[in-house]
UniProtKB/TrEMBL annotation:
This is Cytochrome-c peroxidase. Heme c 2 binds at C208, C211, H212, M283. Keywords: Electron transport, Heme, Iron, Metal-binding, Oxidoreductase, Periplasm, Peroxidase, Signal, Transport. Residues 313-333 are annotated as: Disordered. Residues 1-23 form the signal peptide. It is found in: Periplasm. Its cofactor is heme. The lineage of its organism: Bacteria, Pseudomonadati, Pseudomonadota, Betaproteobacteria, Rhodocyclales. Binds 2 heme groups per subunit. The keyword Calcium does not apply.
Amino acid sequence: MKLSHLALATAFACGSLSSLGWAAKPTEPVSPIQPAKVTNPKLVELGKKLYFDPRLSKSGFISCNSCHNLSMGGTDNLKTSIGHNWQKGPINAPTVLNSSLALAQFWDGRAKDLKAQAGGPIANPGEMAFTHELAVDVLKSIPQYVTEFKTVFGSDEVSIGKVTDAIAAFEETLVTPNSRFDKWLKGDKKAITAREAAGYALFKNSGCVACHNGPAFGGTSFQKMGVVEAYKATSPAEGRSAVTGKDADRLNFKVPTLRNVELTYPYFHDGEAATLEQAVDTMGRLQLGKQFTADENASIVAFLKTLTGDQPAFKLPQLPPSSNTTPRPKPFE
């Protein structure tokens, strides 16, 4: 039975496909985001301070939040991030929101988890441009931090392992539940419009869910950028091949989450898609071999905007003051 676009949209939004002769699927390929469960609030609070503290960088200017701004969807809305001494980054900064749900961290998956990822930018000469040893020295020179590390870990020893443990614990709380789409998944059929529901139906039926599935709508596999048609990237990033050394993995990247995607522009590893409309068009052609009509594109974009959930809301941390022995920043070296 062939249905009109409007009939399908209305039936899908109302949850009544069965009344039109369509069998309802018992499960969806996606699931709602669950709220974070904090088991160690003191560790999370320490991690929050470290996440916002620019003194972990050589310049004393760049923090984790610089590239993963929690007021901007957990990213910086730039094609590529700005590093130490205004260096241009080689790749688009992925959002930190819901990153705990990913199978690995970074576009190429070189970090197995958030703890492994947290130490990378600190010691990267193109990002925070410090060393782990110097970062630890800075923290050791700040009495309030030493006290807080002792409270959290039972010892006043400060190490990079403890630093990354704390940052990762904070980042694990950065999930975004209660999107309108999640409410729809839970049974509130009025949470999204007929147009948005039609966009989801098209998203599923076109094959987008083959890669964008699970609670994060992605992040659970590595896929080649440019399956049907080659992608001409403006970034030198090679993808998984830089990690595995296998040419077959070239331009294979971690599938990004689509949660909060209306906030995390520009899109793709090179940031070349400035808008959601452009991203949907490119993905349709390159990954699916499908040219979406303007109406279909608009429906999918409308659906994607229902994935914006509750953004992290907390009191900004008050960072402890440096002491007279704290190494001073060197922003212009």
